[in-house]
Amino acid sequence: MTLLFDLPVLPDVPVRGETARYPVRRIFCVGRNYEAHARELGNAVDREAPIWFTKAPAALCLSGATIAYPPGTANCHYEMELVVAIGAHAFRIAPDKAMEAVFGYACGLDMTRRDLQNAAKDKGYPWDTGKDFENGAVIGTITPAATFGSPEDQRIELRQNGATKQDAGLGEMIWSIPELIADLSRMYHLAPGDLIYTGTPAGVGPVAPGDVLEGSVAGLEPVNVTIAEAE
To answer: What fold, for 12-228?
Structure first.
C-alpha cells in the first residue's frame, strides 16, 4: 500500500525510573471537576455526570518546552491538573475495579483559549477551538502507580513566575479517579496510551509572553513551560 504522505509518529512521554517511554494515543479531559473552579467561572456544578472533551495527540507538549503564545486568542489561561495514564484495556469497568487500569500519573497543564471557549459556550457550541490546539496539553514525566501510590488528597499547585496561583487538594475533586475511569469506559474502549486530564482547581488565569509556569502534585515530577511571543 502506498500512502500519500507519511503517517505522523505518536507522541510519547518519559516514565520515571524507565528507559522505555509511554506512547500517547488519545487525550480525554474532564471539565468542572472542582467546585470552586466551576464557580469562579460562573458555572453551575453538575453532579449528574462528568463533562468530557478531548484533545488530539498533536496537542501534547512535554514539560520543559518553550511554546509560542497560541494563535487566535487574546486570553489564554493555564489550568493545572493531575493526569492519569491508562495502562490496561478497560470497557464498562466498575469503579471498584477501575484503578487496575491505571499505569501511572503525571502533572499536566490544560491550556485554554478562554475567549474562544466562552464564545462557544454562549452559543451552545463545542469547546474544540478553545481547548484543542498545538501545545495545549502540557505534560510532565509519568510516575508509575506503584511508585506514586493512591491519589487521595495530595497538594496540587500552580506557580506563575514564582507566585502561587492554584493551591488545592486532590480530594476536592467532584468525581474521583475511579469514578472518572468507570464513566469514560462506558463510552470508550480505554486502552494503554490513553491519558485522562482530571480537571483543575480554582485560581486559573491568563498567561502572557515571558511567563514561566510551574505545576506540581505532591509525589510526582513537576511540570513547567515558558510562554514565548506569538508567532
So the answer is: Fumarylacetoacetate hydrolase; domain 2 (3.90.850)
